[in-house]
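Complex record, two chains
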Amino acid sequence: MSTKPIALVRTEPVSSPLVERLHQWVTTVDHKRLGILYIVYALLFLVIGGIEATIMRIQLIRPHNDFVSPEVFNRMFTMHGTTMIFFVAMPVMFGFGNYLVPLMIGARDMAFPRLNAFSFWMTAFGGLLLYYSFIGGDGLYGAGNAPDVGWFAYAPLTAQTFSPGHSTDFWTLSLLISGFGSVGTAVNIIVTIICMRCPGMTLSKMPLLAWLNLTMAGLVILAVSPLTAAQVMLLIDRYLGAHFFDTQAGGSAVMWMHFFWVFGHPEVYVLVIPAFAFASEIIPVFSRKAIFGYPVMVAATVCIGFIGMSVWAHHMFTVGMSSSANTFFVLSTMAIAVPTGIKIFNWLATMWGGHIDFRTPMLFCTGFLFQFLIAGLTGVMLSIAPFDWQLGNSYFVVAHFHYVIVGGILFTLFGAFYYWYPKMTGRMYNEALGKWHFWLFVIGFHLTFDFMHIPGILGMPRRIYTYEPGRGWDTLNLIVTVGVVFQSAAVLVFVYNLIWSYFRGKVAGSDPWDAWTLEWSTSSPPPAYNFATLPEVKSRRPLWDLKHPEDPDWHYE
Amino acid sequence: MSDRRSVMNDRVVQSLGAWKKLVVLFGAALTASAQSSLREVSPTNIFAPASTPAHSIFDLSMFVLMVSAAIFVVVFGLLLYAVVKFRKQRTSDSREPAQVYGSSQLELAWTVIPILIVVVLFLATARVIASIQDAPKPSNAIEVTVIGHQFWWEYRYPSLKVVTANELHLPVSDPARPTPSFLTLLSADTDHSFWVPRLGGKTDLIPNHPNSMWMDPTEPGLYLGQCAQYCGTQHAKMLLRVYVQTRADFDKWVEEQRRPAAVNTTISEGQRVFEKTACVNCHTISGTLAKGRFGPDLTHLMSRETIGSGALPNTPQNMRQWIQDPNFIKPGSKMPAMGLNESELTAVTEYMETLR
């Protein structure tokens, strides 16, 4: 590192031709630009996945509806699930991780900038390949186009016999390719956090967001690898005549389930831990208090990471495991509730006695706390294996995991969008539109997902393109669909706010929230090199120390 | 069977302590009165159990729901209090609130209390898992092999020598002298799941992986359900119908099913068409050339109330339409349209009507 001071003057961006600016975005290795690419890419797919969900909800608005054919419906739920998990949730989390981790630990970039770019483009091409199936999936046999095997693609439905043509191959290959990208980014995040923290930032002085991203990245490596292995085995089955999952030749369908869920459950934590990270940054700043119980928050996170690796077969309570195996997975699954509960109580304690400012980021985090509480409790119900024998694969489960992913993860994610928008663009978002977004989304979310629990209790299985009248499901499904209108309106307001504020928003300044972590110490948006001189920290809240020299944090930590 | 259940419940209740006993009793009273209305809400309501396993699950569920509700009220109340009480006052000075970094006692409390709740829930759950999954099969149990197909159900009663499809018949199990039904679950193609909510939880039918489940329905009646594991295009119309009959009615039904097909001395035109087309490759009609196993056994087709695995009522018009083009009614059905002309269609439909 050069000891010469780096010039602080920002060079005025010379307006270069559009082609050249686009070329810069394509060839960039800057963690901030890649972060934004990830985020924009995920937003695009969020809208596509949302349209697929809307098509399903229109079909289910009344019994025996024929808005779409069963084939199209089956493709819609497969594509909706695959898109939302692999091409919305994961990329957006990687995007925020990419953007924020170096800034928050006082580094100038990720450890491996080129790997970073490679990983993004692998993920991006994976998503494009998946959607190319709508055109190219017909294959030689004139079979269906987009994949229709469900997002967990249980064997042997994926075997050549039951899935002729190439639609399943598009699914397999796109996940395989984006999986490489995910592992690359995970390695990058781990190495960056381990090796590139600024002077003074010991592991115990890292912002919680860095700790949580470290845990998330570790889980990605452990979880995506078995999925990749399974996809390779499936490809070998389909094209080289192996019989791993080909039950007609003695293969094992249950083995696919184990492979998939040993990925699939940690995947939930891959998504929810970064969401916890956002809440752990936003709640303290808007409550004007330090996070309550930092060491316990870190311990609980790592604990969730470890236990999260041992609960996968709770997705398989109905596949005929022995009573002792079922009992084990009941215990391990329930055990997760303990560290998760600790987190909720610590956030609550952070708010307790604070001066809570309910601007849009905090509104979304508050919504998250209430909704995640409910999601956790329905999770405990589903962990009770006998209860799961009834509720598993019903709309109750669908409601439960949407409560986690939308009510929990997406809410904090919206909070994160509003919280870091001024940092990323240099402009403030429109607060009034932000509040409209929040309230419309809260109404839509609760109409859709609260009422979705009940058809499950009344025996409605998931993934059915239509249902019989006279089972008490009709009105409930109508209400669920009505909620979609509010959610769509809210997302439109959100996207409009992002675009409008980019051009018309007030100039934000470097630290609009009077916050405490390092990203707020540099300009908005930060220069390519992030920090003119590398910062040196003495506590978890370096900017608090700067603003309160009479009462710095390092006296207490 | 039901004796065992009540013994088990007593034990659970004793171990829960007095106040929880009250909660359980209150819940039981509440649910008993709500039971009949619950059934009216939906014929597939998991909270209207009608067999021992479904009852055990129901009781456990109510316990879990009550514990969850208690946790919900406490935490929700605290959150709401914090949100209302600690919101920024317009008049409040701009000084920062007191910074609190943590509290070992508090954090220990909200670690230990959840652990205790988990232990209680786990023990209650483990007991119910064992009582359902490890229940011994009595020698007088009815045995049925259930085979899932895309997109219909095959039922074989090996000891009774009965083969039928889509409509499962079981005898009522008298609590005094239980005759539970034990199902062996197999699949001919993809994964399926057998779920009749009022009779018990679901269990998957997985190729190369035989499973089993049992139920002892306590009241006669028709119990509905449907396939609960995505199995392909027509997963939605793979409906389940379980007819629970008194023992006498059930024995009579078995007797009728065991009769060979009604054989006419002269082969009808319909039978001739049936036997010369590909119908016989997939369907069985006992006593005739038709010996296929890919599709439902049609020997006593007219004894069934529905066709297409519950998709349609079994009427002559529906039957005719189904034979003409199954994919019109159930797109993705594995039964092809045979391209019969009008007179052949009428003849085959009439032949089907004779299979009583």
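Note: Chain B touches chain A through 88 residues (CB under 8 Å).
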